[in-house]
Amino acid sequence: MSKNALITGITGQDGSYLADLLLDKGYNVYGLVRRLSTPNTSRIDHIIDSVEMLEGDLTDQSSLNEAMHTAQPDEVYNLAAQSFVGTSWNQPVHTGDVTGLGVIRVLEATRHIAPDAHLYQASSSEMFGKVQDTPQTEQTKFHPRSPYGVAKVYGYWACVNYRESYDMHISNGILFNHESPRRGIEFVTKKITNEAARIYHGLSSELRLGNLDAMRDWGFAGDYVDAMWRMLQHDTPDDYVVSTGETHSVREFVELTFSSLGLDWEKYVVIDPKFVRPAEVQLLLGDATKARDVLGWEPNVRFEELVSMMVEADVERLKHK
After folding, report:
1. H or E element: which one contains 172?
2. Model confidence over 195-221: pLDDT tens digits?
3. How many structural domains are present in the chain?
4. Catalytic residue positions, numbered
5. What element of type H or E holds 242?
6. What is the span of the domain harbouring residue 306?
7. How far apart are CA 55 and CA 8, in angstroms?
8. Does residue 8 sit in the same domain as residue 30?
9. Would you say the pTM of this structure is higher than 0.85?
10. What SS3 state is found at 79?
11. Distance (Å, whole) CA 224 – CA 227
């Protein structure tokens, strides 16, 4: 008998890859989407007829309850959030409501309507912020450095609390940065590959960035959704770091992107102070030993391959222009 899965944030990068994975495994997939005047379903257009879309919002409890009643899920994947760190500085209250309190609303809907469902919460390496240990593991203390990171910490502990208080199967995936050709344009990696492709095609002449020395552990989103699924198949709920165990600077990402196009990045990149955050997370490097040992999960796409994948997709997409 097919399982039912409810994915909040299904139209995002991770939601689209997760929907692909679950459909391939024979799931009935329900996706929660906000009511927008111009819906953005571009990432799931190829599977839109295979997914049942449900209107709802993480700020509205009744809509989450209704979605839970309709989907009757065996598995719930809470991927929806105000997920851009930069925006969280300009919209801290909204970020707290959606990314933080929104988790409680999903937990409450699950507890009352589908209490036996296995639930995945999209936690984030941004919770580590001003890192206390390197590499970061499940035991590393949190020290968030943005309203987004603070909201994610709230959601993380809410999940631990509900797991321990109500004996629910809830797992936190502490995912480090993960990218793909489906990444949103506001994220620095996509901004880099998109602008480089525009420069390559003669559509642009410069790329404006902030801190080139920030170090990140970058993986492929398609690999990371497999880790999400594995967490909910395990008998015991738990919390897992998901990462590659390698760290690279924004500068390295820029150099690799431009060199793959035969361009000298220093001729086009401009450092703009407006892109420097009030409090920067300088270094993130994850240790996914637990996910490897317990879940049998391994990342397959290496850093260089990921950058190449994103550059090729943007060059091809912009070619007709």
Report:
1. strand 169-175
2. 999 999 999 999 999 889 999 999 999
3. 2
4. 124, 126, 148
5. strand 239-242
6. 183-216+247-283+302-318
7. 10
8. yes
9. yes
10. coil
11. 5
